[in-house]
Amino acid sequence: MSKFKRFFAPESPGETFELKHAYIGDKQQLFARVIFNRLTEKQFQKRQAKITEKEKPKNRAYSEKSKLVAVLNVYVTNTPWEWVPMEQVHELYTLRWQIEIVFKTWKSLFKIDHNRNVKRISNNPSIPSELKV
């Protein structure tokens, strides 16, 4: 049985698999790492409930293929394996999304996108570019 098919087998919840030599892009082929993380049964049930909830009000039906793939989290990254091993990708993306939500909340609360003083901040060389939103 191939590694990919094994992901859909009931005995592999929580397992992680990586495509090491993946290339993405239509015109320019770029190297990427594609990591598949099989959900546990509890996580999958929660995801299925969300899918069912989305289907009802919009009178939409997800294909069987979509429902089959819903058992996976898929991460696409170009970070080298030496920097981020396959086993740490999920934790890194989880942390990234938490930080993203914090910044989105700050942007909403402090109305950063409506503030005209943002231009002065972006031109200030004493503020590191990583902190400029």
UniProtKB/TrEMBL annotation:
Transposase IS4-like domain location: 45-120
Domain of life of the organism encoding this protein: Bacteria
One biological process term in Gene Ontology: DNA transposition
GO molecular function, one term: transposase activity
InterPro entries xref list: RNaseH-like_sf (IPR012337), Transposase_11 (IPR002559)
Known function: Involved in the transposition of the insertion sequence.
Protein's recorded name: Transposase for insertion sequence element IS231F
Species name: Bacillus cereus HuA3-9
